[in-house]
User: Fold this.
Amino acid sequence: MPFPRKLLNEGEDVVAEVRPHWWMFVKPVAATALFFVLAIVLKATVDNAVLTSLAAAASLLGLVWTLIRYLRWNTTLFVVTTDRLILRSGVLSKQGKEIPLERLNDLSVTQTFFERLIRSGDLMLASGGELGAQVVKNVPRPFGVQNVVYAEMERAEARTADRMAGRRELSIPEQIEKLDELRQRGAISQAEFDAKKTQLLERM
Assistant:
């Protein structure tokens, strides 16, 4: 299931949603297929009811294993938004962690040789605060995900810089204009306006 949009903050958008790599299904699917074929072979050749039943039961267990893996896959999500990174997991009980982009200190990728072949890997998220280092395992195309996160970090830094630039100190004429607006609305008296205006003009 996709990340619920109702959990997003105002003005926040989802950039990427990543689920674990398909490799996590290989073992249970292979086990299910192996024991299913074995049950058919035993039934056709040996015709031993006990062995056939055991192989069929093992195949059924493999199917249950596959179903459990699917539920884990479907409920494990790594989300990149314009403001934060979100880690969600859990079939029955839910677990969630969030890392604001401005607190992310480092993002590295770990890959074995085999993981390079199947384009999988682990992401190591180093952040300030109580969470510390977090590992996101079995990420498909991890270097692509890493690039997406870095791009959003740069955009977040640019937005922060723009906000800080917008908070520059007003010039004296601008402050007088703001005071006059307050006077016209009745928030300050004429005497208060004149006194403050005099103070500001003395600073020029």
Q: What stands out?
A: The chain has a mean pLDDT of 85. The longest strand covers residues 120-127. The two ends are 62 Å apart (CA to CA). The helical segments are 26-45, 49-74, 113-118, 142-166, 172-185, 190-202.
